[in-house]
Amino acid sequence: MSLLSLVVFLPLVAAAALAAVPRLGDAPARWTWVAVAAVDLGLIAVLWLRYDTPPPGQLAFAEQAAWIPGVHSSYHVGVDGLSLPLVAMTGVIYLACAVYALREQHRPRGQAALFLFLQSVNLGLFVAADLILFFVFFDLSIVGMYFVIAGWGHGDRGRSALKFFLYTFLGSLALLVGFIGLYVAADPHTFDMTQLAAAPPLQGRPLAGGLVLAAILLGLVVKTPAVPFHTWLPPAHTDAPAVGSAVLAGVLLKMGAYGFVRVAMPMLPQAWRTWAGVVTVIGVVSVIYGALVALAQTNVKRMIAYTSVNHMGYVILAAGVAGLVAADTAPARGVAVAGAVTQMVSHGLITGALFLLAGVLNDRARTYDMHDFGGLAAPAPAFAALFAVGAFASLGLPAFSGFIAEFQIFTGSIAAAPVTAVVVLGIVVTAALFLRALQRVLTGETVGRSLGFTDLRARELWSVGPLLLLSLLIGVVPRPLLDVIEPAAHAVVGQLGR
Amino acid sequence: MSHLAQAALWSLVVGPAAVGVGLAMIRRAEPIAVPLSLTVAAASVAASVAVAVARPSVSVPFLAGVDFALTVDGLAALLTPMLAVVTLVVLAAAAGEIRRSRARFHGLMLLFAASATLTVVAATLPTLLFAWEIMGAASYALIGFWWRAEDRVSAGLTAFLTTRSADLGLYVAAGAALAGGAGLALADLAHGSPGWRHVIAAGILVAALGKAAQLPFSFWLSRAMAGPSPVSALLHSAAMVALGGYLLLRVRPLLAATGWAAPLAMWAGALTALLLGAVAVAQRDVKQLLAASTSAQLGFVVLAAGADAVAGGAAQLIAHAVTKALLFLAVGGWLAALGTARLAGLTGVAVRWRSVGWSATVGALALAGIPPLSLWATKDVVLARVLEESPWLYAVGLAASALSAAYAGKLLVVIWSRAPAGRRGAGGTYRREGDTAGGTYRREGDSPGISGPRQAPLVLLAVCAATAGLLVLPPVGAVVARAVGQSGGFHVPWAELAISAVIALAVVLLVTRRPPPEPRWALRWLGLEAAARVLFVRPALRCADALARFDDRVLDRGVGLVSAGSLRLARLAGLVDDRWVDAAVERFAAGTRRLGRLARRPQTGRLHQYYLQAVIVLVVVVVVLVGWG
User: Fold this and answer.
1) What's phi and psi for B432, nearest 5 deg?
2) Which residue of A146, B139, B144, B619 has the fewest CB atoms within a 10 Å radius of its CB?
3) Directed axis angle between helix A131-152 and helix A108-127, to 10°?
């Protein structure tokens, strides 16, 4: 078994072991989760250190084994500059969640097993190089998250979980239809992603290409999510447990966005170019609409959920702009795509941290409403400091990863399609909404639920702190990350030119 | 040597930033905060002098193929030491004034100073934007430093949002520079393709006008006065606002290359100098007066950038920075001691605190443009250059100079008038003034004190405020002009200097006789903030609410309707299934059962009946076969 497969399946094995040992006490179960997540992250670090940018169209650490030969589907995995950063980000977020959940009282063994299972399927999705494999991991993650929300959530969790499940499951069915379309159109028939990207089917067949792309796009924009397919997100976040929200926003949303650069763009370049304008518009609308609706929220968690719509809108925008092929804008479009991948990593870290912090509010005060708090900086200075740092990181302040991502997306998009300059308004609205939230929750006289609020505990500090620190590190020293992403981003833009 | 200089340049940015973040985040740093921050600031002064002499450049790869590059050119060599010195002086003065949360205060100030230095030495657009936005965020945290008072925090919010809205210009400019093909280095921006060059210039102009609190963005500076006085002494005199003007000086070839940007900058600067000068004259709150005067004085810097008077603009920037830092520190000390914000509350303070009073007087006289003090010379070098461009602009500039003499005179009259401030005592109550946008200035828990070692920084600043004019006068002026690459060489406009000196003296004398008018429009800062609220903030909030309702009531309801519809469809299908399909199956089964029952009838077990049945069947078969045949 190669290193990559070990990274993917180690958590699954641990999950099975946890599930199989019912006598295991709560504390060993929690610490097992932390240990496995830490070891997995260590393995990912080894992976990163040994990574060499593969030649275009190929994957590093590639591994292939027969799986369902009847439909030409195989167990094919590997990483490149698009997936390795997401794999690393996934490992980091799950470790943070494991640490955060160290004091979980409600069925900790089951929670640990479920999250380890989810970690495996998420990692599997990012390394998958076969559409069936991709789809299996895509759907299993939805199933896992359903149980997280329904089992460990609060509020109207049953309904929210069901809504999440049905909505995204429906999206995944559209995705499956698209995948089958690709399979049927390929000659010879195959589900292998590297082969499909190397020889894209449906070139020169605009109608069929457009229909297949429409199916795939529908599946991906529901998951990402983009306006108008985003309404499952706020209730799912509001009622999910803190760690569930962190994983949902940090990792699961990326599966949709990752699908753009991994599946839709390289495998349907011609159709993508034809419909790039539509994708760009969806991105622009998501950016502005998500920011404005977030501005109107008074529930902290709902607000962060809507900023996810805004932030993922930038990714969609960059993906759309990449398809607006024109002479001599290829470098600019490459910058935009590099920004999109950076944004996926950055949003995972920052929003993951913010959701964990929102979880602290609910843990102490059983409410997310801004109006229930005031002057929280007095009883909880550490919480206030981290929340402020997270907010500034999320509003795209330089020295944090968000700036690195958004600067690339803005400059690349504006250079390739000047009308997209309108999205810069998004960062003013995001700034307004975060500063308003900071003002309402943290400053002023200490009132309401802020009275007697216990400051961050060690496990909370050590889960949120590293996420923000990593964001800071990327923001100040972006080269190690961008050196991995940029070749792959420019390769995607090259593939779109076919 | 060059390695050493490069290290000094890095340390100038990295040192204060790292220490600042550490101080701000680590609560246990409280006892060492002041000595540590003063040490770092002093080291920065040494490093800044070193880089000003050696002029190093450093760069590392950053993003989008652009380097994170720092360079010290002639202009930066002038500004960097000034910035370091003012930072050190202000931090030293603040050590007495800020007694609580010192670690957070000094940490944020150092972080701010680092970003301001980086703004000065930035050589590429991403580097500039990096520093520029951190500067804005640090200013937000510093204005809202006393976070228990909501109005101070919201003042920080107004300042940050206004400047960030203007900063969008830099993002757009960066995109345009990438498209323009000349690269993102500040020095290359003028060489971009002609179409994109206009976009770059427009973006940078907007961002610079926003940061420099020029029209129409000036109102944020009024709100920013809610912060502690030392913050204003650094941010709103020497650093943040000043760097808006500095950026325009920096990119003047770009402004000139577009044809329209330079005149536009000149008019924006001149009108700001004039109108905000009038605003300053009308203020009854002393920090508001100083703030409006900052906008007005920076108007001359922006005017200089448009008129290509770089040496004069840079000198004006430096002279104003030290003068205004001095005034903010002096006035801040008095305000804290007296617990008031009103100008009238300062009656006779110079008589009571002589030493501070004389320092402040030097500052105010410099601000008034009285010879031979600094701003007299620097302003007129700029105006003389403007006269070559347009007599109208020159006239506006002269009028603005007269207004600066008026507001400085107003301040002088109050602080030297004979009504003893002592009787008012430290318990003087604060009253919110008219419609000025200021907040409360009463400090929280810090005891007043403007004696002893705190006076040393003021004296130093006063000396600088008196002598900074030498930067544009012989013999130093020629060196400066050469260092910043002033086009057209160096000459001293003696005639213009004489005219403005006469005007300034006359206006100050006039103000001592008759108090200047205080029209409402000027008292309210031209209604700019109200206009921004009506035009931008309220529509945005209303739009956000409407969209949120749309999201809940239409989009989400739509999804709900679809799922409810599918449920209804399912129920219908269930009904059809029960009533029709299943009923049909049931009926079929019942029929079959009946048939079975019928079929059971003949199975009687009696032989004769079987025979009879066989006969009947045979007969039927025969009949059928015959009939068939």
Assistant:
1) -70, 130
2) B619
3) 160
Tokens of B620: 């039927």
SS3 A326: coil
Q: What is the DSSP string of B297-344?
A: HHHHHHHHHHHT-HHHHHHHHHHHHHHHHHHHHHHHHHHHHHT--BSG
Using CA atoms, how far residue B130 sits from A346, B55, B70, B231, B343, in Å, is 17, 22, 12, 21, 38
The count of other CB atoms within 10 Å of the CB of residue A6 is: 15
CA distances from B330 to A261, B92, B342, B426 (A): 59, 13, 15, 16
- The residue count of chain A comes to 498
Q: Which residues of B touch A435 (CB under 8 A)?
A: 140, 157, 160-161
Which distant-in-sequence residues (6+ apart) come within 8 Å of B176 by Cβ?
A414, A415, A418, B192, B196, B199, B200, B203
**What DSSP line would sit under B191-258, residue for residue?**
GS-HHHHHHHHHHHHHHHHHHTT-TTTTHHHHHHTTS-HHHHHIIIIISHHHHHHHHHHHTHHHHHHH
Buried b (16+ CB within 10 A) or exposed e, A472-487: bbbbbebeebbebbbb
Enumerate residues 6+ apart whose C-beta is below 8 A from A254: A86, A89, A344, A347, A348
CB contact under 8 A, B168 and A427: yes
Q: Which residues of A touch B199 (CB under 8 A)?
A: 418
Segment A75-119, tens digit of pLDDT: 999 999 999 999 999 999 999 999 999 988 889 999 999 999 999
The alpha carbon dihedral of B333, B339, B342, B346 has a sign of negative
**Spatial distance between the Cα atoms of B202 and B213, rounded to a whole number of angstroms:** 16
Q: Show the tokens assigned to A454.
A: 């216990």
- Chain A CB contacts of B65 under 8 Å are 331, 335
The helix (H) or strand (E) run that includes residue B58 is: strand B57-63
CA separation, residue A400 to residues B166, B394, B416 (Å): 21, 45, 50
A residues 369-428 closer than 8 Å to B (CB): 375, 377-378, 381, 385, 392, 397-399, 403-404, 407-408, 410-416, 418, 421, 424-425, 427-428
* Rounded-to-10 torsion of CA A285, A287, A288, A291: 140
Q: Is the peptide bond before B81 cis (omega within 30 degrees of 0)?
A: no
Residue A220: name the closest of A183, A267, A152, A184 by CA: A267
B183 in Cβ contact with B177 (< 8 Å) = yes
Mean pLDDT computed over A453-481? 95
Rounded CA separation A352/B150 (Å): 29
* Residues in CB range of A404: below 8 A, 6 or more apart: A339, A342, A346, A474, A475, A478, A481, A482, B63
pLDDT at residue B454, as a whole number: 66
Instruction: Give the phi and the psi of residue B185 in degrees, each rounded to 5.
Output: -75, 140
Q: How far apart are CA A116 and CA A120, in angstroms?
A: 6
Which amino acid is residue B445, in one-letter code? G
Distances (CA, A) of A95 to A32, A33, A92, A141, A349: 11, 8, 5, 17, 12
- Residues sharing a CB contact under 8 Å with residue A331, sequence separation 6 or more, in sequence order: A490, B65
Q: Tell me which residues of chain A, numbers 111 to 170, contact chain B at a CB-CB cutoff of 8 Å.
A: 163, 166-167
Helix, strand or coil for residue B482?
helix
What is the mean predicted confidence (pLDDT) over A211-219?
95
d(CA A444, CA A424): 31
CB B461 within 8 A of CB B322: yes
The ranges of chain B with pLDDT < 50 are 421-449
Q: The complex's ipTM?
A: 0.94
pLDDT band at A226 (very low <50, low <70, confident <90, very high): very high
Query: Which residue's structure tokens are 């009024």?
Result: B222
Distance CA A158, CA A144 (A): 14
CA dihedral (A232, A233, A239, A242) in degrees, to 10, reads 150
